[in-house]
Specification:
The chain is α+β, with helices and mostly antiparallel strands and about 170 residues long. It has 3 helices and 10 strands. The strands form 2 sheets. Strands 5-6-2-1-8-9 form a 6-stranded mixed beta sheet. Strands 4-3-7-10 form a 4-stranded antiparallel beta sheet. β1 and β2 form a beta hairpin. About 20% of the residues are buried.
Length: about 170
């Protein structure tokens, strides 16, 4: 009798396991950000899927883009960042990324940039906005691991949470 119940349970459960392999893909970016007190800037390394970035920029400019072959790709990346990833000063002024470089891998691409905050600004009073791929991929989530000295804070962004405080002590 127990063997019959086990077989029946397997027959019921196996189809539901198949749904996991065909389920909704996870869409996420991950960034490491660190305050550099010498340069008064926040330095960022952003990891994302290259095909997603190509698709997002292609949609934005209404033309096909290739991260390795398009002539003005660095400017297009910087333009995309300026609309989707920036720092907000306490005054409400936006500080846009100073794009540095990219590293293209088979699946993931790393984008390197910084935000020049300036001497008169304190980073803990600023906010950061990260809407990378929000207009392009359903269920997009973005994470930043932000460090200032020995302290770190994990910032999470999704459709309803587009901005986060850089204050290490604030949620």
């Amino acid at each position: 009798m127990n063997k019959a119940w086990a077989i029946a349970a397997l027959l019921i459960l196996i189809p539901s396991f198949e749904n996991f392999s065909y389920g909704h893909p996870v869409h996420a970016t991950f960034a490491e950000a660190q305050w550099n007190s010498k340069t008064q800037s926040i330095e960022v390394s952003l990891r994302l899927r290259g095909v997603d970035l190509e698709s997002a920029i292609s949609d934005q400019i209404k033309g096909k883009v290739d991260l390795e072959k398009s002539k003005n790709i660095d400017q297009l990346i910087e333009d995309y960042l300026s609309k989707n990833f920036y720092v907000i000063l306490p005054t409400g002024k936006n500080i846009y990324a100073n794009y540095s470089d990219k590293e293209i891998g088979i699946t993931n691409t790393w984008i390197f940039f910084s935000f020049q905050i300036g001497e008169k600004q304190e980073p803990h009073l600023c906010k950061i906005r990260n809407t990378i791929f929000f207009d392009d991929l359903d269920g997009q989530k973005n994470v930043i691991e932000y460090r200032i000295g020995k302290h770190k804070k994990i910032l999470s962004f999704q459709e309803k949470t587009r901005e986060a405080s850089l204050d290490i002590n604030k949620k």
